[in-house]
Amino acid sequence: MNDGTVKKGLKTRIPRLRHHRGKASVQYPDCELSEFLCDVAEAWEMYVSIPEDLIGRRVSVFRKNVDWSDLFDFVLTPLGYDWFMERDVIRIAIADHEVEPLYTDFQFHLYHTKVLDVESILRLFLNPYDKESMEVLAGGRDVRFHVRKSRLESLTIFVENLDEAFNPDPSDGTASEGK
Predict the structure, then answer these.
(1) Is beta strand 89-94 parallel, antiparallel or unpaired with respect to 47-49?
(2) Is 163 exposed, middle or buried (0-12, 13-18, 19+ CB in 10 A)?
(3) Looking at the domain covering 102-164, what would its CATH class be?
């Protein structure tokens, strides 16, 4: 049975929300997202409707002197969700801003290293909340990216610089095109 406490070593940390004059300070170490959202809504005497796909997600939130809307933005925006008010109920839904389609024809050849050697670094550039991804192609030196068109230029520069960092002889003439 989960009583809302979190065990860490020999210490027990209890989620806390202190609410005063419309602002709150929260300390929620590793708790259920739905529990956190319900506690915040309850502190402001509101109700919250949480989508099923957010149930079971965990968050850690430590914020001071914020209102409830800042807390909702803080935990929901990185997950691709937004909220809106409907009377005294806070409704949560997938963010409804126009999303630029993925551009999947961007392929890059690495001259100085193999994709598997730098795959973890390349993945850091991708935004999983936007469903951006990459795939290693046959041969191990080619990679195809699935990213927003608006990010292609910065991705090209990033990949070229990363590949060039593995060039043992920068004057060998194999530098990527576009430099």
Answers:
(1) parallel
(2) buried
(3) alpha beta
Q: Is 9 left (phi over 0), alpha (psi -120 to 50) or beta?
A: left
Task: Give the tens place of pLDDT for each residue, 66-103.
Answer: 888 889 988 998 888 888 888 778 888 877 655 567 66
- The token duo for 43 is 């502190």
Q: Are 33 and 57 in contact (CB under 8 A)?
A: yes
Helices 68-76 and 33-43, axial angle in degrees (round to 10): 160
Half-sphere exposure of 177 (CA within 13 A, CB side): 2
What is the Cα–Cα distance from 109 to 143, expressed in whole angstroms? 7
Hey, what amino acid is at 121?
Answer: I
Domain residue limits, the chain = 6-94, 102-164
Q: Return the residue matching tokens 């590793």.
A: 30
Residue appearing with tokens 């909340």: 129
Q: What is the CATH number of domain 6-94?
A: 3.55.50.30
Single pTM value for the model: 0.48
Q: Cα torsion at 159, 162, 166, 170 (round to 10°)?
A: 80
